[in-house]
Design a protein that fits this description.
It contains one helix and five strands, in the order βαββββ. The chain has about 130 residues and is an alpha+beta fold. It has a single domain, classed as Hotdog Thioesterase (Thiol Ester Dehydrase, Chain A), CATH 3.10.129.10. The protein is elongated. The N and C termini lie far apart (about 40 Å). The model has no long low-confidence stretch (mean pLDDT about 95).
């Protein structure tokens, strides 16, 4: 079943580079997860109107490999907001450098907590 590329703006778009590979030449899952955390963190900071921190990552599934030179596009979307927390769904998609076809390579649900200047949980604005 072919999945549809999201229609909203991406949170991050980057290129997978040789330094990001494992010994087999595939991009490290950890590198991809870090990019996803950056995308979710960018969204969390905007929603929280300030500092926030990752406290959990649920359901990460690596569906396809990412190769050197692939353009990786990350989409982040708010799923829910609690008093101090936010759940953000992130999808990562790849496009070969010389092609137009895209495919989803992974997805996960990130939980962030809004933090005050002392690093303690604070209410998310508007909640």
């Amino acid at each position: 079943m072919k999945q549809e590329f999201p229609k909203h703006d991406p949170a991050i778009r980057t290129i997978a580079m040789p330094a990001d590979t494992n010994p087999s030449g595939d991009i490290f899952g950890g590198w991809l997860m870090a990019q996803m955390d950056l995308a979710a963190g960018n969204t969390a900071a905007r929603i929280a109107r300030g500092r926030s921190a990752t406290i959990a990552v649920d359901g990460i599934h690596f569906l396809q490999p990412v190769h050197v030179g692939d353009e990786v596009t990350l989409f982040a979307e708010l799923e829910s907001v609690g008093r101090t927390s936010m759940k953000i769904k992130v999808e990562a998609w790849r496009r070969a450098r010389d092609g137009d076809e895209t495919e989803k390579v992974t997805e996960a649900l990130f939980t962030f907590v809004a933090l005050d200047q002392m690093g303690r949980p604070r209410p998310v604005p508007g909640i």
